[in-house]
Amino acid sequence: MKPSPFTYHDPHSLDEALALLNQYGEEARIIAGGQSLVAMMNLRLAQPDHLIDINNIPVLNGIECQDRLLQIGALTSHQDILQSELVRQSCPILTNAAAHIGHYAIRQRGTIGGSLSHADPAAEWPMIAILLDGEMEIAQLSGEKRTLGARDFIQSIYTTDLAPEEILTKISFPCLEENEGWAFKPFARRRGDYFIVAVAACLTLDQSGRIKRLRLCLGGMEATAIRLDEIEQGSIAHLPDENWIREVAKAACNEGNPVDDHNADVEYRRELVEILVTDALQDAFKGTQRG
Amino acid sequence: MSKTAFRLNVNGQDYEVLVEPRKLLSDVIRDDIGLTGTHVGCEHGVCGACTVLIEGKPQRSCLVFAIQARGQSIRTIEDVADENGDYSTLQQMLHEEHGLQCGFCTPGIVLTMEAFLKSNPDPSEEEIREALSGNLCRCTGYQNIVKAVQKTILRGHEEDKEIASL
Ligand SMILES: Cc1cc2nc3c(=O)[nH]c(=O)nc-3n(C[C@H](O)[C@H](O)[C@H](O)COP(=O)(O)OP(=O)(O)OC[C@H]3O[C@@H](n4cnc5c(N)ncnc54)[C@H](O)[C@@H]3O)c2cc1C
Ligand code: FES
Ligand code: FES
Q1: Fewer CB under 10 Å: which end of chain B, C or N?
Q2: A1 within domain boundaries
Q3: What is the CATH number of the domain that holds A147?
Q4: Interface of B with A (CB under 8 A)
Q5: pTM for this entry
Q6: Which CATH architecture has domain B89-165?
């Protein structure tokens, strides 16, 4: 099928884009990489009357690191993140996650801001943002900005806290600590597919080798990725041994409220979680022993 | 709906087109410019047949509106062989290794791998297969495509050596 007609707008500044959004409200849609939106328009799942192209707004693009905060412009492509040396050094779990997104050609055009705004429950960026408590910077017409943590930003399947007149401009991630171990373990049947279930973990140990902080996140088990707060808290001061890994994996697989669908039934998803958590924690532990 | 006139640069040549903004780059390349080597399979980004190079990067022409590509340089399969019609090394190797049967997927594969090899001249088999994963081929089973890419890389090394020994 072909997309339905729309008026195309090509603003060259953020203010211009915000003014257009304000003028057309619900009738308008932003296009970033178009790697989700144009597919939806071709299928007529989306039929905006006004398309506002933000690709010619350079301030939305770029990666910098300040005060141990990695800041990525919303329009930065998956491929640019994947290839960034700055990202690899300060937050390597992002590099790894980017490599799992779609395919080579999709990554060239698809953007991190588009992925977060789209909020697919099986997408990499929303999950990693929830794992790391990333902060979304959102611009409004008034010239005001607001920031929101990932867990408040991503509300449900394809649903965020963004109002129709707002633009996601920047995403900040706290850099990983030195000797922080991490792992991202997605499971998909084919290369480049959205994951069926994924597990992401970050682990730091104290001087005595006990757990200082664990961050553990499951994807594919609910409408959004979920953090396992209780398990994270309960792990503090524990020894990161095989026993602990087994206990956490057993507990984690009972979390969430997954659906039966054509990809996997509930039991299968829970089994995957147990296996992937085990894998992820083993890798994260190894990561803590590098330095 | 009203049409818009703009210029597209395809394979180094400027084309003046008059199309609706909703017209996909793939359709403009095929219908308005008349270059039918760019194939259209799924129109939602999955099959890779429509892949072209925009500013040197492989991208789905079915997921870009033509109007978005104003002022950018677009390269299609028609521009890969040289002006005498001689194949690129990759095309020649696909030919020799039987890396195609019906040929529907081939333009997308050639452009994806030409760009991939430029940015990653010495990939492992694993990396080749990863890069190839975004292009569906229903005929070959991929083995001979991978072989052709590997032979292209070897040929590149041989040429490097020849140049070095000159
Ligand atoms: C074949 C294929 C395979 C894929 N596989 C994966 C995968 O494995 N994992 C994965 O995560 N993704 C995958 N994707 C999706 C891809 O990552 C998209 O790039 C991403 O979902 C959307 O980003 P975009 O920049 O293309 O956004 P667009 O498609 O342009 O926009 C998506 C939505 O976000 C809105 N939007 C975009 N930018 C902003 C902004 N700055 N502020 C406010 N709203 C905004 C748009 O209005 C639209 O509603 C795949 C896509 C394809 C076609
Ligand atoms: S036609 Fe564009 S990816 Fe299939
Ligand atoms: S050769 Fe027929 S689809 Fe690839």
Answers
A1: C
A2: no
A3: 3.30.465.10
A4: 1, 4, 20-24, 27, 43-45, 48, 51, 57-60, 62-65, 67-68, 112, 116, 129-131, 133-135
A5: 0.96
A6: Orthogonal Bundle (1.10)
Establish whether residue B48 lines the binding site of ligand 2, counting it when its CB lies within 6 angstroms of any ligand atom: yes
The residues, any chain, with a CB within 8 Å of residue B68's CB and separated by 6 or more, are A31, A34, A53, A55, B25
Contact B44 A102 (CB under 8 A): no
Identify all chain B residues contacting A102, using CB atoms and an 8 Å cutoff: 134
Whether A150 contacts A168, CB under 8 Å: no
In this prediction, residues B129-134 reach a mean pLDDT of: 96
Judgement on whether residues A242 and A155 belong to the same structural domain of the protein: no
**Distance in angstroms (rounded) separating the CA atoms of residues A71 and A188:** 29
Distance CA A221, CA A157 (A): 12
Q: Which two tokens stand for residue B166?
A: 């000159």
Residues A157 and A188 in one domain: no
* Confidence at residue B159, expressed as pLDDT on a 0 to 100 scale: 81
pLDDT above 90: percentage of residues in chain B: 91
Q: How far apart are the first and last CA of chain A?
A: 54
Residue type, position A85, single letter: E
B128 lines ligand 2 (CB under 6 A): no
Whether residue A155 lies inside any domain: the answer is yes
Please list the alpha-helical segments (H only) found in chain B: 25-27, 89-96, 106-119, 125-132, 143-165
Tens of pLDDT, residue by residue over B55-96, are 999 999 999 999 999 999 999 999 999 989 999 999 999 999
* Closest approach of A192 to chain B, Cα-based (Å): 7
Q: What is the pLDDT of residues A233-275, one digit of tens each?
A: 999 999 999 999 999 999 999 999 998 888 899 999 999 999 9
- What architecture does CATH give domain B4-78? Roll (3.10)
Give the residue numbers in A contacting B (CB under 8 Å), as ranges: 1-8, 31, 34-35, 38-39, 41-43, 51, 53, 55, 79, 102-106, 108-109, 190-192
Q: What does the pLDDT average to over B105-118? A: 98
| A109 with B63: Cβ contact below 8 A | yes
- Which residue ranges in chain A fall short of pLDDT 50? none
Which one of A5, A109, A190 has the shortest CB-CB distance to B1?
A: A5
**A77 CA → ligand 1 middle, Å:** 10
Does the distance separating the beta carbons of B45 and A39 come in below 8 Å?
yes
Q: What angle do CA A61, A63, A148 make, to 5 degrees?
A: 80
Query: What was the ipTM of the complex prediction?
Result: 0.94
